[in-house]
Structure formats: C-alpha cells, structure tokens
From TrEMBL:
This is Tetratricopeptide (TPR) repeat protein. Gene3D superfamilies: P-loop containing nucleotide triphosphate hydrolases, Tetratricopeptide repeat domain. It comes from Streptomyces africanus. Pfam families: AAA_16. SMART domains: TPR. Residues 16-184 form the Orc1-like AAA ATPase domain. It comes from the Bacteria. Keywords: ATP-binding, Nucleotide-binding. InterPro entries: AAA_16, P-loop_NTPase, TPR-like_helical_dom_sf, TPR_rpt.
Length: 894
C-alpha cells in the first residue's frame, strides 16, 4: 500500500491560504522587529479537515526561519476533562528542561502557585485559588517570553482544550500587551458552550483583527491538487467530481486521492463514478472497515490508543490491549501503513510522551466511537489501573474512572475522592467537582455518603455557590456528619448562602443549628457566625436584641479560644457601628489578639472563619483612629494572599481596604491607586457583589476628597454606583457617599433626598457613628440656606454622637460642620477647635480641610499656607486650589 506523498498533503492544506500565511508572516515580523514588541494574537477558525493544523505547521516554519522559539500544544476530544492538559503541553517542556533552581528563579513567587498546575512542583497542603493559578500561568509566559524572545505559542484545536487552559488563554489574551509573544490559535466553530465558549469568545475579541474563517478549496484548487497527486493527465470531469465528493475539504481530498492511488483508479471521467464509494471509506464507518481489514489485534490496538488519547506508547497500548510486545509492534506498523496512526511529526514541535499519534483528530474520534459501549467502559477501567500502576497518580486516572459504570465499588469512590483532592490542590475545582459527582453515582457507603457530599460542597463553594447549597443541605440531612465536621458544613453552607445573596436564610439556618447544640465551643462558634452574618446585613431593620445578646456573650469572653476571639471582634465591630466609645471598641479588639497578632487559625488564609471577621477587626481599628494597626492588618492580608496565590476576591478586598487605610491617613493618591488596582479584580469576581460595592464606593469617596468631581461621577456612572444598594454593609455608607457626590455635581435636591434615605436606614439599624455613616454633616451643610433650623439641629446631633464616640477625627469633623453653619467670631472659634482636634488625628486630609477653613474664617495667611502644604501632601487638589484662591484674595497676616 502506497502512502500519500508528504508534499501532496502539505500542498493540499496550504492551497488558497496565501492571505492567512501572509498574516502570519506579518505577525512574526512584527514580533521579531523589537524586543519591546507587544506581540500578537491570531485566531483561525474552520471545520474539521480545512487545514488548521497545516497552517500552524507553516507558522512554525516561518517563525523558526526568523529565529523564533516555537512551542505548541493541541486539545483532544477525549482529554477535555484533564485540567491544564493543553497549557502543560505548551509550557512544561521548556520548564522541565531547566534545573529546578533555574525554574524557581524564572517563576519567582509564582513557582509554588503555578508549578503544581504545570506538573513541575508538588502541590501545597491547601486548596489552591483558581484565579491565582491562572495569574501565575500568565506570569510564567511573561517571564519566559523575556528569556526566549522571540517566542511563538501555537494552540491547535482549542475547542477541545480543557476549561482550565481556556481560562488561562483568555487571561493571556487580555494581558498580551504586557509581553512580547505571538499566540496563534485554531479552533472549530461551535463545539463548546458555557464557560469554555465564553473564554474562547474573550480570546476572539482580543485577536488582532477579526477571526479568520478558513474556507474550503475551490474547484480550480481541487483540480490543481488532483493533478499534483495523480498526474497532469487527470481530466477535468474527474477533477470536478473529486471536488464535488469532498466539498473542497483538504483533508478529505488528500485521503480520497490516496485511495485513488492505492486502487490504481484511472483519473478519467469514465471512472469518476467510483469516487463516492472510495470516499466513504475515508471517514466514520469507512475507517472502521479499514480497521476490520487489518484484523482483530490491530483493531484492539487502535481502540486502546483511542482510549489513552495521549502518551500513546507501544508498551502502554500493549498492556491495555493485552497484546504481547512483538504483536503490538506489528499492529503499530499496520496502523501506520493504513494512515490511522503515525509517529509524532517533529514539525508540530509537540513533545509527546508516546511513540504514536492519530493521523487526524477525525480518525481518533471515529475509532473511539467505534468501540462497543460495554467494552469501551471496561477498557477505561483497565486504563485507570494501568495509569495508576505507572505512578501517574489518582488525578491522571480520574478521567478514565469517570467513564466506568457505577458498581458499588468502594475503592473507586476513594480513588475519585483522592483525585478530587489532587485537583483542588492545583487549582482545578471544576475537575474536582466532576470526580466527586461521579463518586456519588457509585454510590459511596452510607457512612461516608454525607462526607462525600460535604467535600463536593466545599469544592464548588467558590465557583457555583448555588450548587453548593443543595449539596450541603442534602449532606446535613443525612447521617454521617457529626461533631466538628457538621459544624464546618453548616458554616460552609451559610457562606454559600451569603455568596448567593441569601443572607437572611444564612442567619436563620445557623441560628437553628446552634439551638440544637448544648452550650460549649461548637455552639459558641455557630453563635458567633450567626451574629457575624447579622452584623454585615444592611437591611432596614436590625435583628431584635442582637446587640444585647452579643454584649452578653462577649462579657464573659477572655479570648482563650478562637470562638471567644471571634465574639470579641464581633462585639467591637457592633459597638463601632453604633457609635459607642472608641476606647472600648479598641479594648475589645485588642483582647481578640494574641501578643498583638492574629491568633493561629484566625489568619487571613485560614478558612475556619472567613475574611469577613478579620475585615471587621481591621475596620474597627481604621475608624477608631488606630490607622497604623489597620494598615498593618491590611498589608498582612495582601502579602498572605499574594504568597498563597489567592488573586480573586480575597486579594481584591485586601487591596480595597489598603486603599481605605490610605484614605483614612489622607494619602489620597495612594488610596486612589490601590482602589483602581482593586477595581478590575472586583469586576472579575462579579458586579453587584459586596466586594464590588466596597471598591467603587471608596474610589468615589477618595476622588471627591481629591476634588476630582468629574472623575468621581464618571466612575459612579460607569460602574453603577447608584441604588439599589447591596444587602451587606459597606464602609463608608454608600447612600451617604452617593448623596455627597450628588451635592458635589450640583444636584442639590437629589443629594438631599439621598442623604435623608441614608438617615432613615441608619436610624432603623441603630448605626449612629458619624464617621462611618456621614450623612448628617453633609445634610446639615446642604440645608444651611433653605432650612437653617434643621441644619443646626443636625449639627448639634453630629457633635453629640461624635463626643460619645470620642475620637479626635469624629469630634474635629463635627466641629467643622458646626463652624460651616456659623459666621463671625463664633465660626472662627469653632474652626480653631476643629483644627486642634484634627491636628491630633491621623487623618491628614481632614486636618488640611480644617486648617484651610480656619485660615479663611480668621483671614490667616499662615494657616492657609500650612493648610495648602498639607493639601498638596495629601493629593487633595480641590483643597489646594481653595487655599491658593484664598491666599490670592489677600488673607491677613494671621
């Protein structure tokens, strides 16, 4: 049997591809022009057999001719459940070629985060953050592109890539301007849906120009190809029939012409009628027939190769097909001759672990689908055992185990649970979910069924909280979860409910579970969690008696365990929101620490309590004028999350609150920078969530403080900073900040209405801290002309609340408000008192404002100068402009 000439195959795939090849050449030239080049992204789309792989091979040839490093990978239809499969193919060879120390040097802090996903480092002992792993993989490309410039990445059959790879590819596409690398992607239209489709849409949107759709060969091109393969004597009618039979598909054309050569069919019109029958043997059932012609052993060999899908070594296939080594080698030769299997093509650059690969994905699919269902299932079970025996681990075997029919197999359940743990450790929760869902189908033994459901709920918490709710509710309704495991499951369920915007249900459920327990640490922990959820709820009405219950619980707490420490933090935060004495708030928070630091088990990356509790602690310090302690906690959070590779919502919140600390200090430029860094992270987590509101609210507040009113309004409009507000507390209060914004842009009536709505909500919740819910001072200023009596009453109430709270900042701000409503010497005296208090405050922006207002009221150039210097150091451009205008107007000597 005669094989197709390579030149014919190449010419078939590249016929009428001049425009695509030219686009590739331009992109490679652009990449090679300068080390600072931002690289490029090309996406080619086409049905099976239209030459996508050959176009990538030509890209490799062009790139290597210009001195580029070229790495490539390919998706596989049966391998889509293997996390990081394609990105591993792409990057692993380059990193494995380095010494471990060299790889660590190149990846830096990302080594321990992305290394396990790439298979070059052992996973850690905690669940990896999927977003952090994705960011680490992007960082790996960025760093490797500097070492291996000019670098070209080729990804074939991206529609069959695993979801984790597509997540990375979408992130890489969005950030490709950060690195000098050319990425070329091919895919079929359709084929995927859901999250994978969204990732591919992101890649397409980031491409250089519209996605190129490959077209079939024209009749003229098909005729040219036919004559190149069969000789110039092939007549026109025969050539037209080749085109009609194959519809111009290059792969089908090459296969059909090979059949013509093998059968020694004359390429003349009289024999053209035989082409359709020949073509049927090139696809689907025809391939199956070709296999049968080769004998049962060769068929078994091909089936085993299709089951393995990747790493097709003769020895491994022989074990799966139960063939002796000599017989296996003979079968491999037959399948190569029949153009079903082939040796890996060096032109593709893929360093496959095996000796063989299928000639085309269409053949691999046809062979896999031809295996009888029962036999295919059995072969997957055998493959799982072989992969495990070869030392590849439970995760590698999992894709085979998932295909096995349920059969009450206790060992299989344990293997899938172990595979799920391995997937979670490398940042692939979706793969873990599939393993645990399959384990439940087995099903598990009754005594561990609830535990498997609990593990499934934990795996889906960050990705699909709605599904987590169902799993954990079912687990809690079954026997098997007792003691600490049951308490953990209840708390996880409450977290999922909160993430799913079902906060009231979370409060009810935790309270009901706590009531079932006898007094002790477990009950106290649940009570603390219930109170925590109640405490972050921003609803119209506070839970009856909540603060009294919390105060009673905290009164006996000494901080001897984390449940008591949690209650102390919750009591401190509750006192803060109600405007109780700041010294008592700080004393409660200090008792929750161990030697001034977070207790073991209460760290930022510990999962027993969650981030909300620690944010309450740090905010209590931030708004009681202990900003240094708050900054220390927020910066510790950022460091811990970056080290752990948590770059999702946790890191976004940490950056946001670093911005809050800068805002409290009066470092407005630093605050704006931190909040702008947090904004894209918050968007990635999801608009409308509490994190998103925290970032946008504080950014608007900071821009207003800087005097950048137009920018603040633009942020509010662009990011939806308007009612309806979230169901959880955000600091500072969003309606109060929104009211201040409306006043700043001249919408007086709307601003007053918004501030009055903030007043009503704060009164219902008992939130009387004028620093956290600063509606009253702004409303008093807004009403100064049209309703001076009400404005005066508001100013008096602000001062009363501020003196009750007792911080220099609160009292100084209340005095500023009072001074703004007065004239003459009374205004001067009040402004002077405000300066005295705010001079002792850590909040330098408020000090600058008070100093400038006093300078204007007292006509003191000295104070205006000092206020101007403070405003400039804070980045408060609006205050600085006001001070300059007053100085220019001619303030007195002071």
């Amino acid at each position: 049997m005669t094989e197709v000439r390579p030149t014919a195959a190449a010419s078939a795939s590249l016929w009428e591809r001049d425009e695509e090849v030219a686009a590739v050449a331009r992109a490679v030239d652009s990449l090679c022009a300068d080390r600072s080049s931002s690289g490029g992204l090309l996406v080619f789309r086409g049905e099976a057999g239209l030459g996508k792989t050959a176009l990538l091979a030509e890209t490799r040839r062009i790139a290597e001719a210009r001195g580029c490093q070229v790495w490539s990978a390919r998706g596989g239809e049966t391998l889509r459940s293997v996390p990081f499969n394609v990105v591993r193919q792409l990057l692993q060879p380059a990193l494995m070629s380095m010494l471990q120390e060299e790889a660590r040097e190149y990846l830096g802090d990302w080594y321990d985060i992305a290394g396990p996903a790439l298979g070059i480092a052992d996973p850690g002992d905690r669940q990896a953050d999927p977003q952090g792993v994705c960011d680490g993989l992007v960082a790996a490309v960025r760093r490797l592109s500097r070492r291996d410039w000019p670098l070209v990445l080729l990804i074939d059959d991206a529609h069959w890539a695993d979801q984790e790879t597509l997540h990375w590819l979408a992130a890489l596409a969005e950030r490709r301007d950060e690195m000098s690398v050319l990425v070329v992607v091919t895919r079929r239209p359709g084929e995927v849906s859901g999250t994978s489709a969204r990732h591919l849409d992101t890649v397409a949107a980031a491409a250089d120009g519209p996605v190129t759709t490959l077209s079939a060969l024209t009749p003229d091109a098909t005729a040219g190809l036919t004559r190149a393969a069969l000789g110039e004597h092939a007549d026109a009618a025969f050539c037209r029939e080749v085109w009609a039979v194959t519809a111009g598909n290059p792969y089908d054309t090459v296969e059909l012409l090979a059949k013509v050569r093998d059968s020694e069919l004359e390429p003349v019109e009289a024999r053209a009628g035989e082409l359709r029958e020949l073509n049927r043997s090139a696809r689907g059932g025809g391939i199956v027939a070709r296999l049968e012609e080769l004998g049962i052993d060769a068929t078994r060999f091909a089936w085993a190769a299709a089951i393995l899908g990747t790493g097709i070594s003769v020895d491994l296939v022989a074990k799966l097909a139960t063939l002796k080594p000599d017989e296996a080698r003979r079968c491999a030769g037959l399948l190569r001759t029949a153009r079903i299997l082939t040796a890996p093509d060096p032109a593709t650059g893929r360093t496959a672990e095996g000796d063989l690969e299928f000639v085309h994905p269409l053949i691999a699919t046809a062979v896999y689908n031809s295996i009888p269902d029962a036999l295919r299932t059995a072969m997957h079970g055998i493959a799982a055992r072989i992969v495990t025996d070869e030392g590849h681990g439970a995760a590698a075997a999992a894709r085979h185990l998932i295909e096995v029919h349920p059969d009450d197999d206790e060992e299989l359940v344990e293997q899938l649970r172990e595979a799920a743990r391995e997937h979670l450790a490398v940042g692939a929760p979706d793969a873990a979910r599939r393993c645990l869902e399959r384990a439940l189908e087995e099903p598990p033994r009754p005594d561990i069924h609830a535990q498997v459901l609990y593990e499934l709920g934990c795996a889906t918490l960050l990705t699909v909280p709605a599904r987590t709710i169902g799993h954990l509710r079912t687990a809690l309704g079954m026997p098997g979860l007792v003691g600490d495991d049951r308490v953990d499951a209840v708390i996880r369920l409450s977290q999922a409910l909160v993430h799913n915007d079902q906060l009231q249900e979370a409060v009810r459920m935790v309270g009901s579970e706590a009531a079932r327990l006898e007094p002790g640490p477990a009950r106290m922990r649940l009570e603390a969690v219930r109170i925590m959820w109640e405490g972050i709820h921003a609803g119209e009405v506070s839970s009856p008696g909540r603060s009294e219950r919390l105060a009673e619980l905290a009164r006996t707490c000494t901080g001897r365990n984390n449940s008591e420490r949690a209650l102390l933090i919750l009591r401190g935060f509750d006192a803060l929101m109600h405007g109780e004495n700041a010294e008592e708030v700080v004393e409660l928070c200090d008792r929750a620490l161990v030697n001034g630091r977070l207790a073991p088990g209460l760290g930022w990356t510990d999962t027993e309590w969650g981030i909300e509790l620690l944010l309450m602690l740090a905010n209590a310090y931030a708004f009681t004028d202990r900003v240094d302690r708050a900054e220390s906690l927020f910066n510790e959070a950022v460091r811990n999350y970056e080290i752990a590779g948590w770059t999702g919502g946790h890191l976004a919140l940490a950056h946001a609150y670093v911005g809050v600390a800068h805002r409290r200090r009066g470092r407005l430029e630093d605050a704006e920078q931190s909040l702008r860094e947090a904004l894209p992270l918050a968007e990635r987590v999801g608009r409308g969530l509490p994190l998103y509101w925290t970032v946008t609210c504080n950014l608007v507040d900071t821009l207003l403080a800087r005097g950048h009113v137009d920018e603040a309004w633009d942020i509010a409009e662009r990011y939806g900073f308007a009612p309806p507000y979230p169901s959880t507390i955000v600091l500072p209060d969003p309606p109060a900040v929104r009211g201040r914004l409306l006043l700043a842009v001249g919408r007086l009536k709307d601003g007053i209405n918004e501030l009055e709505a903030a007043e009503k909500a704060a009164a219902a919740r008992g939130h009387h801290n004028p620093v956290l819910v600063p509606w009253a001072a702004d409303l008093a200023r807004a009403l100064a002309t049209e309703d001076p009596a009400r404005a005066a009453r508001l100013a008096v109430d602000v001062r009363r609340q501020a003196e009750r709270f007792g911080t220099d900042t609160a009292i100084g701000e209340a005095l500023r408000c009072a001074a703004a409503l007065e004239t003459g010497q009374r205004a001067v005296r009040l402004a002077a008192q405000a300066v005295t208090f705010l001079e002792s405050s850590p909040c330098q922006y408020e000090h600058a404002a008070a100093r400038i207002e006093y300078g204007i009221a007292a006509r003191s150039a000295t104070d205006l100068d000092r206020g101007l210097d403070l405003a400039v150091s804070c980045g408060a451009d609006g205050l600085a402009a006001r001070a300059r205008a007053a100085l220019k107007a001619g303030a007195g000597p002071g």
